[in-house]
Amino acid sequence: MVKGSGSSQQRQNSLGVDRLTLRIAVLGVLVVAAFVTLFSRLWFLQVLATDQYQALAKQNRVRTVYSEPPRGRILDRNGRPLVVNKESIAVTIDQDTLQSGSLRRHVFKRLARLLGIKLKDLHRNASSLGASPYKPVPVAYGVSEQDANVILENREDYPGVGVATLPVRAYPAGALAAQDLGYVGEISPADLKLPQFKGGHPPYAPGDIVGKLGVERVYDRYLRGVPGIQRVVVNSLGEPTQTRRVQQEQPGPDLVLSLDEKIQRETQRALKSGITAARAAGFAAPAGSAVVMDPRNGQVLALASLPTYDPAIAANGLTAKEFNRLGAATPNNPDDDAFLNRPIQAAANPGSTFKVVTAGAAMATGVASPYSTRDCPGTMTIPPQGGPGSVLYHDWTLADLGIMGFPQSLEVSCDTFYYQLGYEMQTRFGVKGTEFWSKNKTDVPAGRELFQRYARTAGFGHPTGIDLPYENSGVVPDQSWCHAQYLATKKFPTPTCQFGWLPGYTVNMSIGQGDMRATPLQMAVTYAAIANGGTVWSPRIAMGLQRQNQNGTVKTLRKFKPRVMAHLPLDQTELGVIQQGLQEVISNPNGTAYSAFAGYPLSKYPIAGKTGTAQIGTSAFNDAWFISYGPIPSPRYVIAVYVQKAGHGGESAAPIARQIWESIFGIKHKSTVRLGQDQSG
Amino acid sequence: MRAEGIFGEAVDRIGGEPISARMARKAPVRHLDLTLLIVTLLLSAFGALMIYSATVHQQASSGIDPYLKKQLVYMVVGFIVLLTVSFFDYRYLRAFAPFIYGGIVLGLLIVLSPIGSTQLGATRWIDLGSFQVQPSELAKVGIIVALGAYLAERRGEVKARDVAACCAIVAVPAALIFLEPDLGTALVFVAILMTLFLVAGAKIRHFLALVLLGVAVIAGALHFGLVQQYQIDRFTAFMDPHPNVQSVGYNLTQAKIAIASGGLEGKGLEGKNTQTSLNFVPEQHTDFIFTAVGEQLGFLGSATLLGLFALLIWRALRIATLSRDFFGTLLACGILALWAFQIFVNVGMTMGIMPITGIPLPFISFGGSSLITNFASIGVLLNVHMRRFL
Fold first, then answer.
1. Which end of chain A has the least Cβ crowding within 10 Å, N or C?
2. CA-to-CA distance for B46 and B55, rounded, in angstroms?
């Protein structure tokens, strides 16, 4: 290494070149090792691990920002707004700034004092599922402008706190159809797992505001609109440097309901007035429902449920306290549950209103013809030949009303007439005892249980399919239902159906008692079928989606068509005798609703209907039903009224229906409901 | 030993050539290490480009990037310093060594006096109006001269007394720098000292004793709270795989993302170099300049830079062996240690294999004192190389 010139030769001798060369070589090796280390690390990062880090770099700078489009309005069939949006001042917090515990506690304490809300509620709202680290989280809605100004003017006292105007729901029509419209709120973890909230565009995510009840829930997918999506490139300070719009924001389209605001209002008013009158007469009358439906197409014009609530209180988010106040006080007795949409959720014994189904079944199965007659004694033993196990059944009156046909049987609501039809169908098609029971299920062959099969065709025992959530199916009791009940209760001392299907079950069912249960909407559907010549509709409350353009023109985006579920297997003659009977219920002085419609201009606005009085096992009060349709001969409305624990159908339900009819037809009428007289069963 | 040539000129008796020709052959300018000079110019040009690309995005107005402008001025000044240093025979430095040493200690004392200027919590600069001097940078080359002068006297026979004396020589400026505080630069001094001990002929037992002393000093510093918590945090951050955004590890995470996302070919100087252009890497034009190289130029560019550094180190090592005297060898080795340590720690820190310390990357990082010190070091190397026959 060292050149052999004279001078360096000298140095070599004095220092010992070998040792110096060795030492420099050690230094060289150290340097080489350092460079090899750097090169290998560089190779690892930039060649082997680059994909992973490129993804991180992208994440670093691109943020996806979703806008919140205004939710679609909800209109009645005539375009009157039922639900709109209004601006509400909300206080938001920035999670990033309020990350530290002590600062967060201080600011929240100050906020709670200013806004007069509980500290606990603030913390709960702030830690909601959707609390995004990049988006201010609303913690209080409906804040007064004054409070908002205090926050804005004292920024240093409220670090990380912001004020935003957010759209909330408003109800220009007031407390109308609350259960049908529903309310909105933050999506729950349970909802997120439902098929309805699977997918979506963009997919539903925690923190989304969705419909919790009513059409808000069913049509949420449309009403929510399409959020604008922006990809924002941010720098290290989080400041946007460039923005690319991926998707344009689209407000939710307007949902047009088939509800008629006027009819809904009148229906609610009449129902409330009727319940007040029933209570004044000494009945418990805790709750009631009313349905107005178009029998020609299954469109629902009014759907009223009492007790009800003002949906405006849910607009700013329903607090737990309000939720408890409006919900059922005790889980076992939902009589006071304001959230329950009774016309579709409360299934009860339909009582005598069910006789049209028994009549139809008897004719459809050939047990009777339209012109058949039966006796109407005060009592009857079933089976008629007596013997062990025979039961004595009573009509609602002890008088023997003599021999009658279908029309009269409906007019006077003869129970024994229908007991006979029921028993005859039982002996010809019914099942007995534990027939067809197998271990876990029951298969009744075709040709048996024709009464039940007819009832299901007429719309019972399954949901009507209306576009509202949580519909009740009701019950058409049959052998497989009996077996299921037995399996569920066989550990008890006296299990339900412990002897299998008994003929008495069919007899009870023939007058809408026993375990036969129907919702008011199901009753409306079956009466609509009688009124319209046999078409069983699956009712609809939403008619379509539309969008109002800036220039005021309305563009229909989509129509929701009602669906035909079935056709009654009855010809015009068979339907005719039922229709005739239903007219006489109101028009004939012997009719059970004659008194309730005294003074009603029947010749001008002819209607038909049927009272029902359902006895409930242990209750001192009966449930009152009245289902009617009109105007005859081409009915445009079916009205079903059901008042819980309010006496006889002709007594408290029919007068409510009468008020609704009078307001629909524009007949002058008293503003309050007066009870009628009816002793029938 | 001279004879008269045919033209009456003095001729070497053995070679038979004129003395003047021999003198001319030995003239320093004819033994310039051109490779080293070219590598130096390439490196500083590379650095200027990277400083430009790392800072141009921060400038609101158009026009010449002020960082680039300053760095170009530093390069010109540095080149003048280089010429000056290489002009005088380096052997004079031996005589001047005590004065140089005294000068750097004085400079460091001024920094710690109220005259010193504070930035980012550290007092490292002397403010001279339009520009600032960082004496700790100049002290790096000064300490090499001082140690070289002392150890050259020992002629390869280093005794325990000498080790202690060298430690004392280094301890004064290193302690002053540590107080600024600037732990990284203080460590550079230790690296220089160890390298010079190795080359000057310290015994293995000396090294063992120094290791024990080092452990004792570290333990003492930790025990008496001389080391700040943030210094420990920075030191240990590279071992934390999941750092918080607000923590020290943030720098490191962003630096690694920048380098590794560059891939093989890099993202280029324009457009897609998001880590650089969106300022995700703090201090990117100074200590973290290598991230700008990694992201924009990829593995090819980074490896080229490391290759240039390897060339630089190789030239220094070569000059150490070619040197005419032991002093020159020690100077070359000291400068080699200065660069190799800084390169390894700086590049290693941006890639997450070394602790984070405030050590600049030679010739590349923005900063006048550092660049001028490095140019001066090149001047010393060229000086040793040129005068190897005199």
1. N
2. 14
